[in-house]
């Protein structure tokens, strides 16, 4: 992915997080992968002064405490955070979740495939796209 | 028909048929049976809603740990290939196969719960242009000859659902075809208040004793190890047709092909 900034993974399921880490390693993606378990922790990470702003957020929807949609409502209303591209990575095929996500300005909506090799394809596509695409950060 | 075989729609229709009788009895000074009936209907509808919700939550939330198990098993096979014997690898392959099956079953339950819960707007659907489109999307459609009646009507229906009905019925006809010269005839008859569609094949046929069973959830006539199938296709088809006020049934004898027939009430916008 473009630049050296980290990717922030917001995911409560340990095995799903392992799958992302594995795929990132397998595809030789050089960006550091930061992992948090829910929306509240994600906001905490993003607002912590010492942390690099991520180049991309991979966001699960169904999570405890603060779910993905709730996180988007806060992040997209925050002048400092709203330009960070967010890609939803979920099992939910519900239209409502898709409507809510795109209404809140997500950059993509990916269904996690049951098959790991297909999952690697999804991560590869995300990597290729966000290597080509510009982002809107100040640095 | 036994009570438990009736759909919610049929039960409600029956309640509505009884209502005038009950009202008359009411007027004659009987107890307020109409109130009792109205409450019963509300209860049925509430229970139905709750059940749909329940099915959805169960199948949706069960998929996540299932996916996790599947991934862990595949990583086990990949990362520890050297320390696994051939037999060990075979066991993991079987495990993965069963996990795929369970995923398919859950996916099927989800699809089933979506019918009726999520409704598309009904509109005019020209069946004579729908059929060629469906045939195009079927795999192995060249295995059988599709004989489509020249003129087919335009019906008022949820477009995607009707497409699904034809796709599933035609797909079955192809999947189970046992003749080198397979043939499927798609026809429609004007039945007065309804359109009656039929899909006739010259495949293996189905014994009479299974005619009702094939429409039931998760029922398959072949062992799943021989033919991987959730056993949900005809159940979904039946639910789509019945929730639109039609009926579906099967006419077949073993060795003499099968004809699936269904009716759609004539309606317009």
Explain how this protein is built.
The complex is a heterodimer of chains A (139) and B (269). In chain A, 40% of the residues lie in helices and 15% in strands. Chain A has one domain (7-130): 3-Layer(aba) Sandwich (Rossmann fold), CATH 3.40.50.2300. The mean pLDDT of chain A is 92. With 139 residues, chain A is of the alpha/beta class. Chain A is built from 5 helices and 5 strands. In chain A, strand 1, helix 1 and strand 2 form a beta-alpha-beta unit. Chain B has helices at 8-27, 33-79, 86-114, 127-137, 159-175, 233-243; strands at 122-126, 144-148, 154-158, 182-190, 194-201, 248-252, 258-265. Chain B contains 6 helices and 7 strands. The mean pLDDT of chain B is 85. Chain B has 269 residues and is α+β, with helices and mostly antiparallel strands. Chain B is globular and about 80 Å long. At the A-B interface, helix 1 of A face helix 2 and helix 3 of B.
Q: Nutshell version of this structure?
A:
By secondary structure, chain A is an alpha/beta fold.
Could you name the key traits of this structure?
heterodimer; A: 139 residues; alpha/beta; Rossmann fold; five-stranded parallel β-sheet; globular; B: 269 residues; alpha+beta; Heat Shock Protein 90; five-stranded mixed β-sheet; 6 helices
For the sheet with most strands of chain B, the description reads:
5 strands, mixed
Low-confidence stretches of chain B: none
SS class of chain A:
alpha/beta
The averaged pLDDT of chain B comes out at 85
**Are there runs of chain A of 5+ residues with pLDDT below 50, and where?**
none
In percent, how helical is the residue content of chain B?
Answer: 40-55%
CATH C-level of chain A? Alpha Beta
> What is the CATH domain class of the largest domain in chain B?
Alpha Beta
In the CATH hierarchy, what is the architecture of chain A at level 2? 3-Layer(aba) Sandwich
Q: Which term fits the overall shape of chain B?
A: globular
Radius of gyration of chain B: 23 Å
Query: Widest sheet of chain B: strand order?
Result: 2-4-5-7-6
Instruction: Count structural domains of chain A.
Output: 1
Measured by DSSP, the beta-strand proportion of chain B falls in 15-25%
């Amino acid at each position: 992915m473009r630049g050296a900034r980290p990717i922030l993974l917001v995911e409560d399921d340990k095995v799903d997080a392992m799958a992302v880490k594995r795929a990132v390693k397998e595809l030789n993606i050089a960006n550091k992968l930061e992992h948090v378990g829910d929306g509240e922790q994600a906001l905490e990470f993003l607002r912590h002064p010492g942390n690099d702003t991520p180049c991309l957020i991979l966001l699960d929807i169904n999570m405890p405490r603060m779910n993905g949609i709730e996180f988007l409502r806060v992040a997209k209303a925050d002048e400092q955070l709203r330009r960070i591209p967010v890609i939803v990575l979920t099992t939910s095929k519900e239209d409502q979740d898709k409507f809510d996500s795109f209404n809140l300005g997500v950059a993509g909506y990916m269904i996690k495939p049951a098959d790991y090799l297909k999952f690697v394809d999804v991560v590869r596509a995300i990597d290729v796209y966000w290597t080509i695409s510009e982002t809107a950060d100040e640095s | 028909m036994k009570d438990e075989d009736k759909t919610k729609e049929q039960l409600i229709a029956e309640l509505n048929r009884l209502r005038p009788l009950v009202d008359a009895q009411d007027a004659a000074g009987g107890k307020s049976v109409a109130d009792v009936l109205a409450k019963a209907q509300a209860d049925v509808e509430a229970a139905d809603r709750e059940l749909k919700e329940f099915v959805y939550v169960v199948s949706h939330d069960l998929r996540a740990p299932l996916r996790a198990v599947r991934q862990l098993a595949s990583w086990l096979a990949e990362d520890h290939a050297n320390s696994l014997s051939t037999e060990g690898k075979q066991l993991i392959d079987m495990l993965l196969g069963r996990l795929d099956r369970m995923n398919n079953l859950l996916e099927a339950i989800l699809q089933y719960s979506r019918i009726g819960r999520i409704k598309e707007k009904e509109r005019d659907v020209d069946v004579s242009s729908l059929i060629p489109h469906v045939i195009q999307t079927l795999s192995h459609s060249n295995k059988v000859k599709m004989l489509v009646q020249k003129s087919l009507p335009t019906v008022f229906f949820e477009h995607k659902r009707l497409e699904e009905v034809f796709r599933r019925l035609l797909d079955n006809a192809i999947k189970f075809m046992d003749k080198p010269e397979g043939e499927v005839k798609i026809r429609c008859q004007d039945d007065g208040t309804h359109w009656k569609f039929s899909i006739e094949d010259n495949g293996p046929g189905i014994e009479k004793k299974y005619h009702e069973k094939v429409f039931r959830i998760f029922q398959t006539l072949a062992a799943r190890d021989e033919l991987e199938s959730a056993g949900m296709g005809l159940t979904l088809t039946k639910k789509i047709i019945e929730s639109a006020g039609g009926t579906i049934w099967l006419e077949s004898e073993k060795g003499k092909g099968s004809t699936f027939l269904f009716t759609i009430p004539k309606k317009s916008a």
